[in-house]
Design a protein that fits this description.
This protein is mostly helical and 96 residues long. The protein has 4 helices and 2 strands. The protein has one domain.
């Protein structure tokens, strides 16, 4: 899989770092499940999606650069890695 140099850099993540990234995503997802306020629920669910993508990228030994448009690239690569176009469709709705 090709990772564009202007958005991604190869990085050697340890097993512990990868697990921490996944734990951060699940933490936000748990908050989203417990909150009754729709805007707050959406905020944490979207953060969980992005953090889940970061965790998945770290599993691939790739780090995202923090530049304009990086969230869309996280979602795009997440959909490619998992071979699921619905991820990109859902994630990009959140960006509009």
């Amino acid at each position: 899989m090709k990772f564009e140099d202007n958005f991604f850099v190869r990085f050697k993540f340890s097993k512990e770092q990868i697990e921490k990234n996944f734990a951060n995503a699940f933490k936000d997802l748990d908050i989203a499940k417990k909150v009754d306020i729709p805007d707050v629920k959406f905020h944490y669910a979207y953060k969980a999606l992005i953090k889940g993508g970061i965790a998945l990228l770290s599993h691939q030994q790739v780090k995202i650069k923090s530049i304009l448009g990086h969230q869309a690239k996280i979602i795009e690569k997440m959909a490619q890695i998992l071979d699921d176009d619905s991820i990109e469709t859902l994630g990009n709705i959140s960006l509009t």
